[in-house]
Design brief:
With about 100 residues, the protein is mainly alpha-helical. It contains 4 helices and no strands.
Length: about 100
């Protein structure tokens, strides 16, 4: 493993990485589905708060209703991951 750059060089490399990430974010935000995703997550989060549901409650409800196929665990694990991200964002916004 090579030693990490020091001082100005390290800062310049970090700035370059930040700029690359900003460009990636801008590209992702231009996707037509992004606004729909943001709206969906906002509404979902509001409903979860209104009814006191956790992400696990929502997944179980969708499974009971038959809105989720039980066979592909990938779908359920993706939902759980998405919900964990939503709940993490909510904690950050609340300053918890």
């Amino acid at each position: 493993m090579s030693p990490s750059p020091h001082g100005l060089v390290g800062i310049r490399l970090a700035e370059k990485q930040i700029e690359t990430l900003r460009q990636r974010i801008d590209t992702l935000q231009q996707d037509p589905g992004y606004a729909q995703d943001v709206e969906f997550y906002g509404k979902l989060q509001g409903l979860m708060q209104k009814f006191g549901f956790t992400s696990q409650d929502v997944v179980e409800l969708l499974m009971l209703r038959g809105d989720l196929e039980l066979a592909p665990n990938l779908t359920v694990s993706r939902l759980r991951h998405i919900f964990s991200l939503i709940e993490g964002e909510a904690r950050v916004e609340r300053g918890a």
